[in-house]
Design a protein that fits this description.
Blueprint: H1 3-7, H2 11-27, H3 30-50, H4 53-56, E1 69-72, E2 79-82, H5 84-94, H6 98-107, H7 112-141, H8 144-149, H9 155-184, H10 194-219, H11 225-241, H12 254-260, H13 264-276, H14 282-310
Antiparallel strand pairs: 1-2
Helix pairs in contact: 2-9, 3-7, 3-9, 7-9, 7-10, 7-11, 7-13, 9-10, 10-13, 10-14, 13-14
Length: 313
Amino acid sequence: MSKQNEHHPKKLHGLWALTNRELKKWLNEPVILLMAILQPIIWMGLFGKAMNLGNMFSSSNFNLNMPDVTFYYPPIAGNITIPGSVLSPIFQNMFSNMGPSVMKNIFGVTDYFSYMSVGMISFIVLFTTMFSGMSIVWDRRLGFLNKVLSTPVSRAAIIFSKVLNASLRAMFQATIILVLAVIFGLQVSSTFTPLNILLLYAAIFLLCLGLSSVFLALALRSTKWETQMAIVNLINLPLMFASNTFFPISQMPDWIQAIARVNPISYLTDAIRQLTVYELNATSLMFDFAFLGIFAVVFSIIGILLSWKYLTK
């Protein structure tokens, strides 16, 4: 290796070295790794299965004890009375399929578990990316960031190593969620193919790129993890609940709908559902990818520009 190359290593080498360090930190913490697996199980098992919304619209939950109904029928003297015990089973049968029909119209699928379980992927992506900012604060406090800034490694590589770490972790957890969801009863659409998984990973990467850049930009000058945690707690719940992760946007109040329609979490969630449980709508999917792509490019550029200005020793 020439002397010049020793002092100016390839940019990808520095990027991979930093990303590899982040991944090793994650893999060497068995508790964190175990939590990454247990968290989706708990959410899908308790939240997804407990909220059996389809059963709420079942005819058995409606009081269909019909009273006796009397009709006046002119050709026959007197009235005709139909007992309620005869009418009740008829109406019960008429509303027997109401639950799946209502679920299909509101959620796009006939069971809430399928709707919610794939939405869990967006939930995991959000919570994984928000720790990107925490990571850079810890690197600064431990003195590691100063050492890296003293090397020829570019600031962009420092930022992208955090982004790649978050993306790979999110993809790993998304795979766990999908496997568990299928075991628990996920109903995939007829348009689902293994190739859809690749597009799903691409959508996750785009959101990780944008969201990680946002959280990193917020943490560039921070030296206290408490500050970063307060910011994250302020942002994550509005981002999660003002989206279609757990509930359709169309059923929300108008002012929340306005927030949800510019929330990138909504577009990742819709893209994932298009690729797994919905009948694929190519136009809607392309729009989701366009929004996620613009979001990723804009905020990654902003993150890099801010890192050049504020990422100092």
